[in-house]
Amino acid sequence: MKKFISIFALATLFVFSLGTSSSSAAFGYGDTMDTAMVLWNPYTIDTNEVRLTKDSHSDDDWYLINNSNGSSNIGYTLILDPPEGVDLFFSTMKMDDDGNIVSFTVNNGSGPGGVEAVSTGLGAGQKAYIRVMSVTSADYDEYNPYTLKFKKN
Q1: Structural domains of the chain, ranges and CATH numbers in brackets
Q2: Mean pLDDT of the residues in the chain
Q3: Are the CB atoms for 87 and 60 separated by under 8 Å?
């Protein structure tokens, strides 16, 4: 009987956990620099597209372009396409293999619903952290995702 109660309690917990969800891909994943989602590394394909919703204006999403094991420089293009009427922007922080910041840029200026884009490069041994953020407290849409596209040139 004790075994039946334990199994029943576990099954009930499992069913209740199915009823809760987050509108982002995984709560807590990609929310900080330490948990950044990998967009590209030398062992992946040359294009990647991510579609995520923002849970709130303070829900920043972090991505990583990791050329730390790369033996050559790469060129790439990033395109951020927000939902209609939502003003999002992204910053890029490039770091060398010693963890020193090499450059920091911000792409913002297209206005609500406008596409932000940049074509740039990354040296061998470097990483680039991309942070997608809201411009104002009203700039998020928990039901319609934004798209971040990476393409190695």
Answers
A1: 23-152 (2.60.120.380)
A2: 85
A3: no
* Cα(75)–Cα(126) distance, integer angstroms: 12
- The answer to whether the CB of 110 falls within 8 A of the CB of 116 is yes
User: Which amino acid would we find at residue 1?
Assistant: M
d(CA 121, CA 141): 31
Average pLDDT over residues 108-120: 95
Please give the Cα distance from 126 to 22 (Å, whole number). 33
Q: Could you give the C-alpha distances from 84 to 34, 41, 140, 144, in angstroms and in order? A: 30, 31, 10, 9
* Residue 51, CA distances (Å) to 3, 5, 54, 95, 97 in order: 43, 42, 10, 25, 29
pLDDT value, residue 23: 34
pTM summary value: 0.81
User: 102 is written with which tokens?
Assistant: 């090499």
